Amino acid sequence: MTLKLKSSNLLTLSALSTCLISLSALSYPTLASAEGDDDWHITIDKQVEVSQKQIAFVPFAGSEAISSIIENDLKASPLKISSQGLIGQPHSSEELKVTLPAWQKLNFPHMIIGQSSVVGGKTQINLEVIEVANGRVIKGKHTVSDADPKVAAHKASNRIYELLTGKKLDLNAALLYIEEKDVGEQKISTLMLRDADGSNPTPLISVPDSRIYAPAVSPDGRYIAYSLQKKYNNAYLYTYDRQTRTITQLVNLKGSNLNPSFSPDGSMILFSNSTNADSDIYRVSSRGGQAERLSALALPYDQVSPSYAPNGSIVFVSDHANRGKPSIYRYNFRGAPVRLTHGGYATNPSVSADGTKIAFLSGSNAAIMDMSGNIIANYGSTGLDQAPSFSPYGQRVVYAKGAKNSSLVVRYVDGGQPVTIPVNGVAKSPIWVPSGK
Question: H/E/C letters for each residue in 56-105?
Fold first, then answer.
């Protein structure tokens, strides 16, 4: 392809990048007003293959580490990001003006450009997402900042993803899970918190010769509800305050108390209680107190794994229709529960932030279905009977895989590249902790 500029030289692809970088340092008014000179023809003698759906990511000016974080964030997403075959490195829409015709020949529908710097002790990132065909900057220039460079980089990725898809992300959300080591009386069960890229593993609660079960996190990320079963005892519910690092027993019901779930406003907690070989669903204030059994769900056999939906309705598991073969139901606190799955083995449901999808365990497979019970994603056997858990905005899921040398798998619901995080022990019941950033 040929780009008309002002001069009389011919450049091949090998020299083009150097030329364009040099041009970007020139004064644009001088270039634009240079009249009467012969036309400058730049000939590219190698056509770069570009998919119509690929998005050009121009490495950001400033910190290479920040640019790499943003690029890796986007490459793991369903977006088709490419930093190959680029013909220069403009870092603002102003810098792009002189070479925009050449970019338009490459068939990238969009391009991402920006730069990072340190301002007032914080990392500041300026970014622009551009429609290449017309040079339009989508919703103008955007600026994000944070004292933590990695947090700032993830904020930039969140913004870019939303500009291109209309969907929100929380790439600063952390992962909370149970890590088990050793066996028998030597077993140690630990509630672990770590970044979703696998860094900064932090133990919150560690108990020897005991078991922690199925944690839940309040909507503001401050409180963690979980079950703890000490040796020769039933499982009791506790809450952990991440700010004060205090632990409080939530209820004192006989039997095993499992599978807590916070209401959308954080004021209530659902859980299941097993007494006399039957399980029923209860709710209690998140500050503790008298637990109330949901009598409308007091069906024959077992009702377990309750989980709040964003609209305040709930999903839960029951085998009253077919003893020993659990199904998932939806209940809105009016009328009768509605059965969503039929046949097979379905358990451990949780609802996405937009209320349109349910992550669950289908047999031994991690899966996602719509609210009518139609499976829309099946991630295969986890080896641990672990269901996926939705991220705060519902664009990603996490689940544990591997019965011995476990790992956490983070992936987008709509595709992209899964990220696998090795765990030192057996990982169970991973969920997300919102960042609030």
Answer: EECCCECCHHHHHHHHHHHHCCCCEEECCCCCCCCCCHHHHHHHHHHHHC
Residues 90 and 207 in one domain: no
87/204 same-domain check: no
Residues 218 and 279 in one domain: yes
Structure tokens at 417: 């590249």
Residues contacting 365, CB < 8 A, separation 6+? 378, 379, 380, 381, 382
What pLDDT shows up at residue 403? 79
Strand order through the sheet with 415-422: 389-390, 396-401, 407-412, 415-422
Burial profile 197-225: b = 16 or more Cβ within 10 angstroms, e = fewer: bbeebeebbeeeeebbbbbbbbbebbbbb
Whole-model pTM? 0.85
* 17 is a domain residue: no
Give the pLDDT band (50/70/90) at residue 46.
very low
CB 44 within 8 A of CB 37: no
Q: Are residues 283 and 423 in the same domain?
A: yes
Looking at residue 254, the DSSP 8-state letter turns out to be S
**Stretch among 23-32, 51-60, 65-74, 120-129 having the lowest mean pLDDT:** 23-32
Residue type, 367: A
Cα–Cα distance between 308 and 317 in angstroms, integer? 12
Tell me, yes or no, whether 182 and 311 share the same domain. yes
**Closest CA relative to residue 259, chosen from 325, 206, 215:** 215
pLDDT digit string, tens, across residues 69-88: 999 999 999 999 999 889 99
Residues 135 and 179 in one domain: no
Domain count, the chain: 2
Domain that holds residue 178: 174-433
Q: Long-range CB contacts (< 8 A, 24+ apart) of 284-290?
A: 284/250, 284/251, 286/218, 286/223, 286/225, 286/239, 286/250, 286/262, 288/239, 288/248, 288/249, 288/250, 288/251
Q: Are 9 and 43 in contact (CB under 8 A)?
A: no
pLDDT above 90 covers a percentage of the chain that reads 73
Backbone angles phi, psi at 427, to 5 degrees: -95, 140
Does residue 12 or residue 93 have the better pLDDT?
A: 93
Query: What is d(CA 145, CA 407) in angstroms, rounded to the nearest whole number?
Result: 32
Task: Specify if 116 maps to a domain.
Answer: yes
